[in-house]
Design brief:
This protein is of the alpha+beta class and 633 residues long. It contains 23 helices and 18 strands. Strands 5, 6, 8, 9 and 10 form a five-stranded mixed β-sheet that branches. It has a five-stranded mixed β-sheet with strand order 11-12-7-13-16, with helices on both faces. Helix 15 packs antiparallel against helix 16.
């Protein structure tokens, strides 16, 4: 006869098991199943073999095969060259499947895992002699594995200039494992996301049409030396684009491939046509939140050809040389010796100078655009570029870059159908932020009492008000109209306003209305990385900096526990803690209270005790930054 389960007995049994495991030092862990992963490995001598292969290649053969009647088929020429490069990479690399164990100790190699299985097998069979020998071998293997792991960790800190390897060493010391929410494996999700990212395409009814260049139009011609220098500067850790050509190959084989890529680039500029393989984009999504409720909760990461990124970087350098130096003085992005410090300082200077007058106050509108880069109409952009003095051939080339772009979304093992996009600029492209700043260069205040501060797509309207707000409100209405004409969409829910009013008889300020919705008036905001309060005090910003710096001190203590020398600890402090303390320090430190300064100095003193050397005080850091800033300007 079956007996009903005894809940009390089960509870006692579980409690006894938990106590027993705690006594043995074995916490109850949740085991994860091993995962299979396909990786590409580079054997010893693979790069040298690849360089020899490219050195012996007759690249002119690809151009001759793509030439018909004296005209080069750029699509065929580029596809054959990139395909040959990919084939050579496949010949020298090895693809294999590896097994990853999420709960595995970082120091445990395959040899130790094999000995563990052998020990368990000997224990189950009852062979005491085999069990004794296996345990002895296992102990020696564990000691050797831990010793080798410690040496690998110390190797991360030999080059004090490589901060990435230092962070990898810290992650190994702290056993840090990055956890990120996984994307849904729904088969229809990639197509839904692809349609969502291309949603502005249906609203663009302006046809892209190239202009006929004049006879004296000077076509940009790139030099092989510049292309070679750009290829050598490629980050080898960048993810490869749809052409599967990694940055490591471009960097290591720059000398062998600079000439053929220069030829392709110059043909593209001369014909104002960009090969389709250079414009193809694969979007990888990452959830913004642990729980995804809508398509907007996915962050898109665009993977494009690294060769095309180098091409755009070369064109961007040329565009910067053609722009007038006085273009949009309140746009602080892409200006020499300008940064977010200048944008914040200018905003605060305008506000404080006005507040010195009697009976005045300031209203600041912090504008948020919905997918700013994705809404660019290429034909409108080309018109602005022509007015700025860029030649017709270059404008036509940029128009071809932005139109006819094949785009797909990749999630796990599912890939969406390809959609051709002719609206917006690719996210993550080095050229997109510059093009956006040129598109919005004519967005300037129409009233002298208002100022529009910009840093790429971060836009702030500063209204200097005496008593009448009509000029400020009219400025906002004109800005909304300007955005509508230029196909830019204001996100009213994320657009915020802050009022700085030090008058004794303060009144309630009526909120702005944009598209029938009221803009929320807030007491503080994070503006370009700095917390600004409505009373212009810096306690909130100081508390935020202190919290972030204290989190980094934890890693500094871990490095000290690993017995790393003081020079390495000092380098880590400068790159991770001091960089936080000195972030935009010239804009806020001068008005900090004595208590806030002591709080920041306490971080420096704690770092001194950990490292064991004297460090510059927070005041000296501020003076040094001000001196450097004055020399730059």
């Amino acid at each position: 006869m079956a007996h009903a389960p005894d809940p009390v007995g089960e509870h006692r049994g579980l409690s006894w098991l938990a106590r027993r495991r705690r006594r043995r030092g074995r916490p109850i862990v949740r085991r994860s199943k091993p995962l299979l992963k396909q990786v590409r490995t580079w054997p010893a001598g693979a790069i040298s073999a690849l360089q020899d292969c490219f050195e012996q290649t007759t690249w002119i053969t690809f151009k001759e095969a793509a030439t018909d009647g004296g005209t080069v088929n750029l699509e065929e020429y580029t596809a054959s060259v990139t395909g040959y490069i990919s084939k050579c990479i496949d010949d020298v690399t090895v693809s294999k499947t590896i097994t990853t164990h999420p709960n595995q100790k970082p120091w445990m190699p395959a040899e130790v895992r094999m000995l563990l299985r052998t020990r368990d097998s000997a224990f189950r069979t009852g062979d005491r002699e085999a069990l004794r020998k296996t345990r002895a071998k296992l102990s020696r293997a564990i000691r050797e594995a831990k010793r080798a792991h410690a040496q690998r960790i110390h190797g991360h800190f030999k080059d004090t200039g490589d901060t990435r390897r230092m962070w990898e060493g810290i992650q190994a010391i702290t056993n840090y494992r990055k956890t990120s929410p996984s994307c849904d494996s729904d088969a229809i999700l990639p197509d839904a996301l692809n349609d969502f990212y291309a949603r502005f395409e249906a609203q663009n009814n302006v046809a892209a049409e190239k202009s006929i260049p004049p006879q004296n139009d000077q076509v940009l011609c790139l030099r092989a030396a510049d292309v070679r220098r750009t290829l050598r500067g490629v980050n080898p850790r960048k993810a490869a684009g749809p052409d599967n050509i990694p940055g490591r190959v471009l960097r290591e084989c720059a000398d062998q491939r600079a000439d053929v890529l220069t030829d392709i680039f110059n043909i593209s500029l001369n014909c104002t046509v960009v090969p389709t393989c250079f414009k193809t984009t694969t979007i990888v999504t990452v959830p913004k939140k642990p729980t995804v409720s809508c398509l907007n909760n996915y962050r898109s990461i665009a993977l494009t050809s690294i060769i095309m990124k180098c091409f755009k970087r070369l064109v961007m350098r040329h565009i910067k040389t053609q722009l007038p130096p006085s273009l949009d003085p309140l746009q602080f992005a892409y200006h020499p010796n300008c940064s977010t410090d200048d944008a914040i300082s200018t905003t605060l200077h305008l506000a404080l100078t006005h507040l010195d007058k009697k009976g005045t106050y300031v209203r600041m509108l912090f504008i948020d655009f919905s997918s700013a880069f994705n809404t660019i109409v290429p034909q409108h952009l080309i018109g602005r570029l022509s007015l700025l003095g860029l030649n017709t051939s270059l404008c036509n080339w940029i128009l071809d870059v932005l139109t006819g772009r094949p785009q797909s979304v990749w999630i796990g093992s599912s890939t969406s159908n390809t959609t051709t996009v002719s609206t917006g600029a690719p996210q993550g492209s080095v050229l997109s932020p510059l093009l956006f700043t040129l598109l919005t260069h004519d967005c300037a205040a129409m009233h002298s009492s208002n100022h529009i501060i910009k840093f790429t797509d971060d836009t702030t309207v500063v209204g200097l008000i005496n008593k009448d707000e009509s000029a400020y409100r009219e400025e906002v209405r004109e800005l909304v109209s300007w955005c509508k004409v230029n196909n830019l969409y204001l996100n009213v829910d994320k657009t915020k306003e802050m009022v700085v009013d030090f008058r004794r008889a303060r009144r309630d300020h009526s909120p702005l209305a944009i598209k029938g919705s009221s803009v929320e008036i807030i007491k503080n905001i994070k503006f370009l990385g700095v917390h600004i309060a409505e009373n212009l005090t810096w306690t909130l910003n100081t508390n935020s900096i202190t919290k972030r710096a204290q989190q980094r001190l934890y890693f500094l203590r871990k490095l000290r526990e690993a017995h790393l020398p003081s020079p390495i600890l000092t380098t880590f402090y400068r790159g991770t803690v001091k960089s936080i303390l000195s972030s935009c320090i010239i804009t806020w430190f001068g008005n900090c209270t004595a208590f806030d300064r002591k709080t920041l100095q306490r971080i420096v003193r704690t770092a001194e005790k950990i490292i064991g050397v004297s460090l510059p005080s927070i005041t000296n850091i501020y003076i040094t930054r001000c001196t450097l800033e004055s020399h730059q300007h």
